[in-house]
Amino acid sequence: MTEPQVLDVDAIKAEILDLETKRYQAVVDGDLDAFRSFCHPNLVYTHSDGSRDTVASYVNKVETGFYVYHRIDHPTEDVLVAGDTAVVVGEMNASITANGKDKELVNNSIAVWVRENGTWLLLAYQPTPRPAS
Q1: SS3 60
Q2: How far apart are CA 59 and CA 113, in angstroms?
Q3: Which contacts of 97-105 are long-range, i.e. CB under 8 A and separated by 24 or more positions?
Q4: Of the candidates 20, 105, 121, which has an alpha carbon nearest to the alpha carbon of residue 69?
Q5: Tens of pLDDT along 86-131?
Q6: Which of 75, 79, 111 has the alpha carbon at shortest distance from 12?
Q7: Residue 132: what pLDDT?
Q8: How do 39-46 and 119-129 pair as beta strands?
Q9: CATH of 9-129 among 3.30.70.920, 3.40.50.300, 3.40.50.970, 3.10.450.50
Q10: pTM as predicted
């Protein structure tokens, strides 16, 4: 009988938080090769306006200047781990230019990471505007 695999949840949370920091920084820096390296090929990237992108369409929009990220803050409330899935619950607050218009984003966010062949990849991302207080 084989022993059940024990997850080191704290180590997974630390790794996921590091990946989140690196992927946000890659976007701000315009390092799209780095950004791609964090993404699952089936990534669904939903924007706060409800539009959706794939990895390719999102990267194209950043490359062409449709999206320009000037600043991103991403405080995290929790990282939920279930097997080879991690869900980051937090915020995404940013100063961006979208389609030529400057915007300040104040969002709650969910990022879903999956582990495939030992590598964590971003599978889904969804920011949602926070209600005005």
Answers
A1: helix
A2: 18
A3: 97/65, 97/67, 97/68, 97/70, 98/66, 98/67, 98/68, 99/66, 105/48, 105/129
A4: 105
A5: 999 999 999 999 999 999 999 999 999 999 999 999 999 999 999 8
A6: 79
A7: 81
A8: parallel
A9: 3.10.450.50
A10: 0.92
